[in-house]
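dumping the sequnces here before i forget
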Amino acid sequence: MSDQLVEKVLNEVMKKVAQDMAKPEAPVLEKVTENCKLTEFVGTAIGNTIGLVIANVDSELHEKMGLDKKYRSIGIFGGRTGAGPQIMAADEAVKATNTEVVAIELPRDTEGGAGHGSLIIFGAEEVSDARRAVEVALKDLNRTMGDVYVNSAGHLEFQYTARASYAIQKAFNAPVGQAFGLLVGAPAAIGVLLCDTAVKAAEIEVISYLSPSTTSHTNESILAFSGDSGAVRQALIAAREVGLQLLSALGGPCKSLTQPYI
Amino acid sequence: MSDQLVEKVLNEVMKKVAQDMAKPEAPVLEKVTENCKLTEFVGTAIGNTIGLVIANVDSELHEKMGLDKKYRSIGIFGGRTGAGPQIMAADEAVKATNTEVVAIELPRDTEGGAGHGSLIIFGAEEVSDARRAVEVALKDLNRTMGDVYVNSAGHLEFQYTARASYAIQKAFNAPVGQAFGLLVGAPAAIGVLLCDTAVKAAEIEVISYLSPSTTSHTNESILAFSGDSGAVRQALIAAREVGLQLLSALGGPCKSLTQPYI
Amino acid sequence: MSDQLVEKVLNEVMKKVAQDMAKPEAPVLEKVTENCKLTEFVGTAIGNTIGLVIANVDSELHEKMGLDKKYRSIGIFGGRTGAGPQIMAADEAVKATNTEVVAIELPRDTEGGAGHGSLIIFGAEEVSDARRAVEVALKDLNRTMGDVYVNSAGHLEFQYTARASYAIQKAFNAPVGQAFGLLVGAPAAIGVLLCDTAVKAAEIEVISYLSPSTTSHTNESILAFSGDSGAVRQALIAAREVGLQLLSALGGPCKSLTQPYI
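..and the predicted 3d for all of it:
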């Protein structure tokens, strides 16, 4: 009797464990900001993203980093998973604060995934401005992760803003003040088709097409584009519809990391 | 009594779970092609590989992608895991169809592994030709993944063809029509020794030696070579024998992803 | 009654499994060197690192690898996880043996982590010298992994030597014979703050600042510096204190891979 019981429990448990282990190994997405007493610490967010400030960067380091001399204070904002979401969030931050995005660097990361991580530096004359920019960006990241879809085979990303500001300009050379769209498909094979879908869906102006040889060797194809606000949205929605079908066909159900916003 | 039972079951289960978790986290290898209704969808294959076609690439995108104007139709073939296997399969596809390989891009990928992913574009005048090329490549991939050996510490890859065609020429600058061999060892330290083993084992002509600074920052050493058919095979077999011993010493048993063909 | 028991066991087990799965997926760190009969095999070490020798490198490969002609024998030392630790260990090896470090290549690796792997080649006139260098490096690696701290969100690394030798010079252009310090923070956002902390903590001379755009697209910020022995240590200790707080805030407890030595 007891052996049967052991067997029964064993089966139940193994079934449950198998289910758990079969889940796509998505990057860590929800993050409880732990207590950190450092004055430089601002907070953390989805995608193993952290926000920090330095009130007065050491002058030698400042020079080695190639920063503009007029900013002694910097905000630091970057994560393991995501480049587009962090850039879009930084764009909202520069709109809302007296700061400038002085550097955007895109490592090959996503914790074993197919894409980028990010390192974004805000320059400010006052540390309070730098801190405010990082706060805004950290907070907005939950929104900009909304049209990121992930499964074990890859990811899709769609970003939209009605009015691009200076972070988007710096990252993609996009015209300031215009509607801007960004789409990413990984693996890159999927991305190529999404780019074609987007340009055919609406009258948009392609700013750049990126693929593994022009990204940080990510397995992504990327389209950055501007245009009329309605057209940009239409292109994104068309590409998203196709992308979800393709990525699902390859790796099973894929879902938004937070809440879709487009 | 019941506490003893709980303890007993707990021990059994933890043992089983530990075994499961100790298994090398190999990339996803078997793939059920799910239903996808898009006309552009051709199929999926091992290594999170997908095949797609575009009948008539948008002209602006066509230009941004740097494609030859004579091909309006393209086949898209690429995956998260593997570059050599996809290139070899694409080579069979160009032999069998009226297409050309117009682009090969190699992201740093393999889903947390040490190697490349791939993005290969076939150009064709007719979409039916592009589709046929992608079909052939998808189907052949199971074969070309045969001499890929993986464990938790790295991977080995050996590829052979009696007659290289235009995909191999484009990827490795190999002479068309001659026997061609490719070997990959990861981590790169293992690969260096395999390269030496291969060149000493038979009279081959080295086309190129690649290492982390000349790949997409992969942790691989790679040798591409041509020569007499027997010599190329002999070099590969010698390197494979050494490679399996080294990779096993580092990470335990490693086995073929499908069925060895060399 | 038995169903209650099943439920109870199930709960216990799932709790235990959840704990196990919540552990940061650190790279494989302890490694039992398996028997390998190849004469070229020297041994394995932490970080999926392997050591090999070639008594007489094939002359064609030798040339393709760009090695100095005076060394026919090479030692090969490299791993999936770690660049700094392997370089520091190689530095001890060149101090202790009649060899030279002839190549250092740094893939983007760490098995899904944020950093580098490594491929280091020792040149020697005698194979016994090459073997000895690899043995010393393999053995020392356990020490140099001591101030590497890892959790699921990233890693930190601190390296110190009272007297840099030729491996460190080759890797970082550091002055031979002087105290040398190296710090790495991943994600790169954390690294930026650690660099600032270090330069403010003591009178050191910055040799180089590296970030994702100047590494192999790793998600790291890196500072290499020299100076007075006490100052170098002080800078490292200050950065380590800050780094542990930040990385913990982002990803929970992080601990040394072996035993801290600084």
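The longest strand of chain B covers residues 154-161.
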